[in-house]
Write a structure and sequence with these properties.
Mean pLDDT: 84
Shape: globular
Radius of gyration: 19 Å
């Protein structure tokens, strides 16, 4: 997608689009924000009573969004989050803060909350990308950013416009969130899967 091709599809000159967005990258970020818009409000409206129910509701909300937008969901996964140590699809500071705070309120330690966040997001990304791939012909990582207009090209650094003032749990756990334990997480996830299979077979 280019701004020129989008303008052509909308029946306007490409330059007319720059009244609303600063370029292609800005537009793609807006798409992601639109897809995730209202997630916290819907989760809160569910009034869950346990951490299990809370995570189930978040997962179902994300899955519903992914299945309703199978060609756009890879953007949620591949666009750089607000900070490099946050993980898609829960890539918004406010949503991550909501999740960490909820887990802590229900007895999780900081380490347990971060480990849960990482395992939960890894499951969502892996499963939902696989699921949406059955609905569209080509689900792949988004191509390299195109510098059209004056849009900022997302990098791995934390975005300057991110406000951590309303995210005390994220700030407190930032070091833990940024630690890379990918190998251990993979082994833990694999072990959990094998245990689940074993329990199913034994019954």
């Amino acid at each position: 997608m280019t701004m020129r091709s989008l303008g052509r599809d909308l029946g306007v000159e490409a330059m007319a689009l720059y009244r609303y967005v600063s370029g292609r990258e800005d537009l793609l970020e807006a798409v992601v924000e639109s897809l995730l818009d209202g997630l916290i409000e819907r989760v809160e409206a569910a009034q869950t009573t346990s951490w299990q129910e809370y995570l189930q509701h978040v997962a179902h909300e994300i899955r519903q969004m992914a299945l309703a937008n199978p060609t756009a969901f890879p953007l949620v996964v591949s666009r750089h989050p607000a900070a490099p140590w946050l993980r898609p699809p829960l890539r918004d500071i406010a949503m991550v803060e909501h999740l960490l705070a909820t887990l802590c309120e229900r007895g999780f330690s900081d380490d347990q909350a971060v480990d849960t966040y990482k395992a939960f997001t890894s499951f969502l990304v892996g499963y939902l990308l696989l699921e949406v791939s059955t609905q569209v012909e080509n689900v792949a990582a988004v191509d390299e950013p195109m510098n059209e207009g004056s849009a900022d090209i997302p990098e791995q650094d934390t975005r300057e416009d991110v406000d951590f003032g309303q995210a005390p749990h994220v700030v407190r756990m930032r070091d833990r969130l940024s630690q890379d334990h990918s190998e251990a997480e993979f082994e833990t996830g694999l072990e959990s899967l094998l245990n689940r299979i074993e329990n199913t077979v034994s019954h």
